[in-house]
Write a structure and sequence with these properties.
About 80% of the residues lie in helices and about 0% in strands. It is an all-alpha fold and about 240 residues long. It has a domain of about 140 residues: Four Helix Bundle (Hemerythrin (Met), subunit A), CATH 1.20.120. α1 packs antiparallel against α4 and α2 runs antiparallel to α3. The longest helix is centred in the C-terminal third of the chain and has 42 residues.
């Protein structure tokens, strides 16, 4: 994957080339260089290079847009398909079986459609360039820094700056060690809490104690079952 600067530079160049190719095809159609009156073989001879170049540029721009703005992939796929579809079948339309004049007319209609859809595709690409995904741009910047770290390490710096950077590096290493220790303590605490929860789950509630009234009710029920009336006079 390219770094941020290289990606933006390459993307900008491809957009410029794509726009120029659209204008070139439009000029050929409006000036009659490519015309329905021409035989399919003549149309293909005049347009083969342009159609092939435009198709390749569309695929490359699509790939870059999917990197720069992946959350817009449904729209990117739809707009690129509207351009690539007719371009991919342009030659097939020209040389399919049937009347040549009709084939030429149909192929030219497809090419006009490509110009229209290509303009929409170009607008989307410019929008992605001006408003790329913030997260992806951050990743590309970090990659760019990482790729250039060997170059940066060879650049001499003043002694005072070097001492400050060395001190900062030591502080960062200490912080990393402290974070590692904290993570270990949290893991130990999590394990202990899980053990406590497991022990608690082993306990069962005791049955409720019987009160005096509940004991009397039990005695009355027992006497009813035995067929005797409960007595309210105590035996001496």
């Amino acid at each position: 994957m390219l770094g941020l600067s290289a990606l933006i530079e390459d993307f900008t160049l491809k957009l410029s080339q794509f726009e120029e190719m659209l204008q070139k095809i439009t000029t050929k159609i409006t000036s009659g260089i490519i015309s329905e009156r021409l035989a399919p073989s003549e149309i293909w001879r005049e347009s083969e290079e342009d159609v092939t170049t435009l198709r390749n540029l569309t695929e490359q721009i699509k790939k870059s847009m999917l990197i720069m703005k992946p959350e817009n992939s449904p729209t990117i796929e739809k707009r690129s398909a509207a351009v690539l579809g007719p371009l991919n079948k342009f030659k097939e339309t020209l040389f399919k079986k049937g009347e040549q004049s009709l084939n030429s007319k149909e192929a030219l209609e497809e090419l006009r459609g490509v110009v229209i859809e290509g303009s929409s595709f170009l607008d989307l690409a410019k929008e992605v360039k001006n408003n790329p995904s913030e997260g992806i741009m951050t990743i590309l910047r970090l990659k760019e820094v990482y790729d250039s770290k060997e170059y940066l390490s060879a650049i001499p710096v003043p002694e005072v700056t070097y001492i400050r950077l060395a001190s900062l590096k030591n502080d960062i290493e200490k912080l990393k060690i402290a974070i590692s220790g904290l993570e270990h303590s949290l893991n130990m605490l999590r394990t202990n809490l899980n053990n406590v929860v497991e022990e608690i789950s082993k306990y069962r509630a005791l049955p409720p104690e019987k009160t005096e009234s509940s004991q009397t009710e039990t005695k009355v029920d027992a006497e009813k079952e035995s067929g005797t009336e409960p007595s309210i006079v105590s035996n001496s």
